[in-house]
Amino acid sequence: MKKAVVLLSGGIDSSTTLAIAKEQGFDCYAISFDYGQRHRIELISAQRVAKQMGVKDHLIVSFDLRKIGGSALTSQLEVPKADVQGIPVTYVPARNTIFLSFALSWAEVLECDKIFIGANIMDYSGYPDCRPEYLEAFEKMANLATKISVEGRLKFKIEAPLLYLTKAQIIKKGISIGLDYSLTWSCYDPQGDTENPAPCLKCPSCMYRLKGFEEAGIKDPLIK
After folding, report:
1. Tens digits of per-residue pLDDT, 58-71?
2. What is the pLDDT of residues 72-89, one digit of tens each?
3. Which member of 44, 115, 176, 190 has the lowest number of beta carbons within 10 Å of its beta carbon?
4. Residue 223 belongs to a domain
5. Contact 90, 207 (CB under 8 A)
6. Among candidates 123, 121, 152, which has minimal Cα distance to 134?
7. Are 173 and 218 in contact (CB under 8 A)?
8. Domain encompassing residue 158
9. pTM score > 0.85 for this model?
10. How many structural domains compose the chain?
Protein backbone atom coordinates (compact mmCIF):
# COMPACT_ATOMS: atom_id res chain seq x y z
CA MET A 1 0.00 0.00 0.00
CA LYS A 2 1.11 3.56 -0.70
CA LYS A 3 1.47 5.70 2.43
CA ALA A 4 0.52 9.28 3.30
CA VAL A 5 0.99 11.49 6.33
CA VAL A 6 -2.12 13.64 6.85
CA LEU A 7 -2.34 16.75 9.03
CA LEU A 8 -5.54 16.33 11.06
CA SER A 9 -6.96 19.08 13.28
CA GLY A 10 -10.44 17.60 13.59
CA GLY A 11 -12.04 20.37 11.53
CA ILE A 12 -13.96 20.15 8.27
CA ASP A 13 -11.02 20.73 5.94
CA SER A 14 -8.44 18.42 7.51
CA SER A 15 -11.02 15.67 8.10
CA THR A 16 -12.19 15.82 4.49
CA THR A 17 -8.57 15.76 3.35
CA LEU A 18 -8.02 12.57 5.35
CA ALA A 19 -11.14 11.03 3.81
CA ILE A 20 -9.89 11.94 0.32
CA ALA A 21 -6.46 10.42 0.96
CA LYS A 22 -8.16 7.27 2.20
CA GLU A 23 -10.41 7.21 -0.89
CA GLN A 24 -7.32 7.50 -3.10
CA GLY A 25 -5.99 4.27 -1.64
CA PHE A 26 -3.40 5.55 0.82
CA ASP A 27 -2.53 3.96 4.12
CA CYS A 28 -2.96 7.08 6.23
CA TYR A 29 -0.83 8.23 9.15
CA ALA A 30 -2.63 11.11 10.85
CA ILE A 31 -0.76 13.74 12.84
CA SER A 32 -2.42 16.24 15.18
CA PHE A 33 -1.05 18.93 17.48
CA ASP A 34 -1.75 19.89 21.06
CA TYR A 35 -0.09 23.31 20.99
CA GLY A 36 -1.92 25.16 23.74
CA GLN A 37 -4.84 26.19 21.54
CA ARG A 38 -7.93 27.47 23.35
CA HIS A 39 -10.09 25.17 21.22
CA ARG A 40 -8.18 22.07 22.34
CA ILE A 41 -11.48 20.20 22.12
CA GLU A 42 -10.67 19.80 18.42
CA LEU A 43 -8.25 17.02 19.41
CA ILE A 44 -11.17 14.89 20.59
CA SER A 45 -12.73 15.35 17.15
CA ALA A 46 -9.42 14.48 15.49
CA GLN A 47 -9.30 11.22 17.43
CA ARG A 48 -12.88 10.37 16.46
CA VAL A 49 -12.29 11.14 12.79
CA ALA A 50 -9.05 9.15 12.76
CA LYS A 51 -10.89 6.17 14.22
CA GLN A 52 -13.74 6.43 11.70
CA MET A 53 -11.27 6.65 8.82
CA GLY A 54 -9.26 3.67 10.05
CA VAL A 55 -5.84 5.32 10.01
CA LYS A 56 -2.75 3.17 10.42
CA ASP A 57 -1.51 5.38 13.26
CA HIS A 58 -2.53 8.67 14.86
CA LEU A 59 0.26 10.74 16.38
CA ILE A 60 -0.56 13.67 18.67
CA VAL A 61 2.45 15.95 19.18
CA SER A 62 2.45 18.27 22.20
CA PHE A 63 4.23 21.61 22.56
CA ASP A 64 3.21 24.98 24.00
CA LEU A 65 2.82 27.89 21.61
CA ARG A 66 1.24 29.90 24.43
CA LYS A 67 4.80 30.69 25.46
CA ILE A 68 5.13 32.54 22.16
CA GLY A 69 1.59 33.91 21.93
CA GLY A 70 0.75 36.41 19.21
CA SER A 71 -2.63 34.87 18.42
CA ALA A 72 -6.13 34.84 19.87
CA LEU A 73 -5.88 31.04 19.81
CA THR A 74 -2.76 30.93 22.01
CA SER A 75 -3.13 33.98 24.27
CA GLN A 76 -5.71 36.07 26.12
CA LEU A 77 -6.57 38.08 23.01
CA GLU A 78 -10.29 37.92 22.25
CA VAL A 79 -11.49 35.75 19.40
CA PRO A 80 -13.27 38.05 16.93
CA LYS A 81 -17.01 37.52 16.62
CA ALA A 82 -17.31 38.67 13.04
CA ASP A 83 -15.43 38.29 9.79
CA VAL A 84 -12.48 40.68 9.56
CA GLN A 85 -10.44 42.22 6.77
CA GLY A 86 -6.77 41.30 6.39
CA ILE A 87 -4.97 38.66 8.42
CA PRO A 88 -7.00 38.15 11.63
CA VAL A 89 -5.79 37.74 15.21
CA THR A 90 -6.66 34.03 14.96
CA TYR A 91 -3.56 33.59 12.78
CA VAL A 92 -1.00 31.59 14.77
CA PRO A 93 2.55 32.70 13.85
CA ALA A 94 4.18 30.17 11.48
CA ARG A 95 1.71 27.45 12.50
CA ASN A 96 1.57 25.52 9.23
CA THR A 97 5.36 25.69 8.91
CA ILE A 98 5.66 24.14 12.37
CA PHE A 99 3.01 21.51 11.64
CA LEU A 100 4.40 20.59 8.23
CA SER A 101 7.89 20.28 9.67
CA PHE A 102 6.72 17.67 12.17
CA ALA A 103 4.80 15.91 9.38
CA LEU A 104 7.91 15.97 7.17
CA SER A 105 10.03 14.45 9.93
CA TRP A 106 7.56 11.61 10.42
CA ALA A 107 7.19 11.11 6.65
CA GLU A 108 10.95 10.73 6.28
CA VAL A 109 11.04 8.07 9.00
CA LEU A 110 8.07 6.28 7.40
CA GLU A 111 9.67 6.65 3.93
CA CYS A 112 6.41 8.21 2.80
CA ASP A 113 6.50 10.70 -0.06
CA LYS A 114 3.02 12.25 0.29
CA ILE A 115 2.01 14.79 2.94
CA PHE A 116 -1.63 15.90 2.84
CA ILE A 117 -2.82 19.23 4.25
CA GLY A 118 -6.31 20.75 4.23
CA ALA A 119 -5.16 24.22 3.12
CA ASN A 120 -7.81 26.24 1.31
CA ILE A 121 -7.80 29.70 -0.31
CA MET A 122 -11.52 30.05 -1.14
CA ASP A 123 -13.38 30.18 2.19
CA TYR A 124 -10.57 30.99 4.59
CA SER A 125 -9.40 33.80 6.85
CA GLY A 126 -6.49 35.12 4.80
CA TYR A 127 -3.75 33.09 6.47
CA PRO A 128 -0.47 33.47 4.52
CA ASP A 129 0.52 29.83 5.17
CA CYS A 130 -2.47 28.50 3.22
CA ARG A 131 -1.41 29.99 -0.12
CA PRO A 132 -0.28 27.76 -3.01
CA GLU A 133 3.05 29.60 -3.32
CA TYR A 134 3.75 28.83 0.33
CA LEU A 135 3.01 25.13 -0.15
CA GLU A 136 5.24 25.04 -3.23
CA ALA A 137 8.05 26.68 -1.28
CA PHE A 138 7.73 24.24 1.61
CA GLU A 139 7.77 21.30 -0.80
CA LYS A 140 10.97 22.61 -2.38
CA MET A 141 12.52 23.06 1.05
CA ALA A 142 11.47 19.54 2.10
CA ASN A 143 13.37 18.06 -0.81
CA LEU A 144 16.46 20.15 -0.03
CA ALA A 145 16.51 19.52 3.71
CA THR A 146 16.04 15.76 4.15
CA LYS A 147 18.56 12.96 3.92
CA ILE A 148 16.17 10.66 2.07
CA SER A 149 15.65 13.25 -0.70
CA VAL A 150 19.28 14.33 -0.96
CA GLU A 151 20.24 10.68 -1.42
CA GLY A 152 17.67 10.45 -4.23
CA ARG A 153 15.59 7.73 -2.56
CA LEU A 154 12.36 9.72 -2.31
CA LYS A 155 10.85 13.01 -3.49
CA PHE A 156 8.31 14.64 -1.18
CA LYS A 157 5.03 16.01 -2.51
CA ILE A 158 2.70 18.32 -0.54
CA GLU A 159 -0.89 17.45 -1.47
CA ALA A 160 -3.62 20.06 -0.88
CA PRO A 161 -6.74 18.60 -2.54
CA LEU A 162 -9.09 21.28 -1.14
CA LEU A 163 -7.03 24.29 -2.18
CA TYR A 164 -9.52 25.72 -4.69
CA LEU A 165 -12.81 24.32 -3.35
CA THR A 166 -15.49 26.30 -1.55
CA LYS A 167 -16.58 25.12 1.89
CA ALA A 168 -19.84 23.86 0.39
CA GLN A 169 -17.94 21.82 -2.22
CA ILE A 170 -15.70 20.42 0.51
CA ILE A 171 -18.68 19.34 2.61
CA LYS A 172 -20.42 17.71 -0.34
CA LYS A 173 -17.23 15.85 -1.22
CA GLY A 174 -16.80 14.57 2.32
CA ILE A 175 -20.36 13.34 2.55
CA SER A 176 -20.06 11.61 -0.82
CA ILE A 177 -17.14 9.53 0.49
CA GLY A 178 -18.66 8.71 3.85
CA LEU A 179 -17.25 11.29 6.27
CA ASP A 180 -19.42 11.90 9.34
CA TYR A 181 -19.27 15.65 10.01
CA SER A 182 -20.87 15.22 13.42
CA LEU A 183 -17.40 14.06 14.51
CA THR A 184 -15.71 17.30 13.43
CA TRP A 185 -15.19 20.59 15.27
CA SER A 186 -14.62 24.11 13.91
CA CYS A 187 -15.30 26.70 16.63
CA TYR A 188 -12.37 28.77 17.93
CA ASP A 189 -14.21 29.77 21.11
CA PRO A 190 -16.07 26.72 22.48
CA GLN A 191 -18.91 27.31 24.93
CA GLY A 192 -19.84 25.07 27.84
CA ASP A 193 -17.46 22.40 29.09
CA THR A 194 -15.53 19.54 27.51
CA GLU A 195 -18.35 17.12 28.31
CA ASN A 196 -21.03 19.23 26.59
CA PRO A 197 -19.31 21.69 24.28
CA ALA A 198 -21.21 23.98 21.95
CA PRO A 199 -19.91 26.13 19.10
CA CYS A 200 -20.17 29.89 19.67
CA LEU A 201 -21.66 30.35 16.14
CA LYS A 202 -20.10 33.82 15.96
CA CYS A 203 -16.35 33.40 15.40
CA PRO A 204 -15.01 33.41 11.81
CA SER A 205 -14.49 29.64 11.82
CA CYS A 206 -18.11 29.06 12.87
CA MET A 207 -19.28 31.53 10.23
CA TYR A 208 -17.40 29.74 7.44
CA ARG A 209 -18.80 26.42 8.64
CA LEU A 210 -22.38 27.73 8.80
CA LYS A 211 -22.05 29.30 5.34
CA GLY A 212 -20.66 26.06 3.91
CA PHE A 213 -23.47 23.86 5.19
CA GLU A 214 -26.09 26.42 4.15
CA GLU A 215 -24.72 26.66 0.60
CA ALA A 216 -24.43 22.86 0.42
CA GLY A 217 -28.11 22.59 1.41
CA ILE A 218 -27.22 20.29 4.30
CA LYS A 219 -27.96 20.67 8.01
CA ASP A 220 -24.88 20.98 10.18
CA PRO A 221 -25.06 17.99 12.57
CA LEU A 222 -23.46 20.10 15.35
CA ILE A 223 -26.38 22.55 15.38
CA LYS A 224 -29.12 21.21 17.60
Report:
1. 999 999 999 999 99
2. 999 999 998 877 778 889
3. 176
4. no
5. no
6. 121
7. no
8. 2-216
9. yes
10. 1
